[in-house]
Amino acid sequence: MARKNYQKELNSLREGVIEMGELVHTQFERSIQALSDRDKEAAREVITTEDAINEHYLELDRKCIRLLNLQQPVAGDLRFIVSSFKINTELERIGDIAVNVAKRTEGGLPDTQTTADVLSMAKEGSTMVADVMDAYGAVDVGTCREIIARDDQIDQLAIHASRQLIRGATYIDTDATDLDPYREDAVRLLLTIDDLEQVADHATNIAARTVYMATGDDSLLE
């Protein structure tokens, strides 16, 4: 592969990862909006986008493998390709979470304080995803480090939301109430809280990978 074509392939990979980030972020935003509006039809539309996201993921996966096999890159180029490969996977997992949340919305989630807390988590997670992909595109190490520090905020929101859910259970009259619907709602909310916490983790991993890509510092990688 001639050097000019090789550089073109690297640029194409960067653009592809940025596009993947935009697709996933849009999908996640639509999933959050469907949850906020209790819109089951919108949730179903989010679910139908899964195949397109997966196809884009596989295309980037193949591109990374081709570059590694044909060019045998070293130093900065190697870090860029490997980091982009890993970031692509993190984005695909965020896309999976968007679908999970949409499926739970389709199944029905209660209008409670815990659900409001979940939406706060979701919005912060969405902002982290948008910010980290901007940082990847700009190779902005400073912003990446700030994003990593923000992960604790999501963790605290998750703890608060879980406690709200448990606190709400203490006010249920177990003698007068059919507990099955409450259990189902509680399980769906707890799974959603866990998923949204993972969105922040994936955004943090992307930030750490971008720092490594730019500087070679692997101390933030898990």
UniProtKB/TrEMBL annotation:
Q: Which GO terms describe its biological process?
A: intracellular phosphate ion homeostasis; negative regulation of phosphate metabolic process; phosphate ion transport
Q: Which InterPro entries match?
A: PhoU, PhoU-like_sf, PhoU_dom
Its localization reads:
Cytoplasm
Give a yes or no for keyword Cell membrane in this entry.
Answer: no
The main location class comes to cytoplasm
Q: Which UniProt keywords apply?
A: Cytoplasm, Phosphate transport, Transport
Domain PhoU residues, every copy: 18-105, 119-209
Record SUPFAM superfamilies: PhoU-like
Entry's family note: Belongs to the PhoU family.
Described function: Plays a role in the regulation of phosphate uptake.
The name this protein carries in UniProt is Phosphate-specific transport system accessory protein PhoU
